[in-house]
Amino acid sequence: MWEQIYEKIDALYNRMVEDRRYLHQHPELSFEEKETSKYICNRYDELEIPYQKNIGGYGVIAKIVGGKPGKTVALRADFDALPIQEENDVPYKSKVDGVMHACGHDGHTASLLAVAEAVLPFKDELEGTMVFLHQPAEEYAPGGAKPMIEDGALEGVDAVFGTHLWATTPVHTIETTNGAFMAGADRFEITFKGKGGHGAMPHQTKDPVVMTGQAIVELQQVVSRRLDPLQSAVLTIGVIEAGEAFNVIPDTARLQGTVRYLDKNVQDQIIDEMHKVLKGISESYDAEYELDYVKGYPPVINHPAETEYYLNEGKDIPGVNQVNEVPPVMGGEDFAYYLEERPGTFFFTGAKIEGHDYPHHHPKFDINEEALPIAAKALVHGYKKYQES
Ligand SMILES: [Zn+2]
Ligand SMILES: [Zn+2]
Which SUPFAM superfamilies is this protein grouped with (predicted)? Predict the structure, then answer.
């Protein structure tokens, strides 16, 4: 049966490309994916597969209940796009100004729909229940995974698998790792509240620009001097805002940035150390600070047994000839929430277009469509292995 399902997925190649290109031309931003959700529902209507819609927002959950007893395994695909103007000159270019599928979620959706269509004819022979989680709003915290889970998406589910098409990894390659695979991703905003005044009379002010300068340097030392060198973290400041005139000291100054980490204890420690640094600086200037720290997605922590299905047996998937165990990626993913609740794993399916090598979220990002059936088969592989376990 599995061989036939894999063959059926290959036979659905044109269908996948069609779905992917339609979605690529009609991208919708996170939390606004009404039409995308409708498109997915229409496809399940055509296939006559039962589904529920509006789960945790625009989420859609379809199910194929197999004719034989077994475990319930969920396969997930996200479907939101990004606020980016597409710069690719392709027939399937985005038709929406300033919005683009620049992360490949159009491809994830097409692959998962193909899995449903390929498995359906084998329903009676299938062991267990296959659950299709079509998730909105991955790109923007608090994301779509959490509300879907709160709405019952994992009820009765034993394990969950997900993949990301990865545009910088060659086709026919799968990449993953055991344990922390993607980082926790937080954002913060710091405001120094000083006292403004004349640029020539600094002694009458509490200069927040100077405090900001100190903070930028000292915050770098949270990672380099306070964390255990064997722990990984990033603290990046991406925005500095202060002042409007060259000879005026402003009242306030603002910094914004992001923290990435792989271990929750590290996250706690970083927040703690940031407060110490900011308190020290502001006190020494007789000023005040505010730290608005927003916790984003937790790290993606892959479970060992399910990850081994790919690391050890990934080459059994037709179309996969290379499996790489890779170091964690410091990007974030709300797939993390599923793995906090259930066993499972997340992996990359290589989707690089040779000679057109742009990273995710780039205006020229594109995926190699040959990867679509491989991603579909790789998800089926997770289901199959989990049933056998
Ligand atoms: Zn993305
Ligand atoms: Zn993505």
Answer: Bacterial exopeptidase dimerisation domain, Zn-dependent exopeptidases
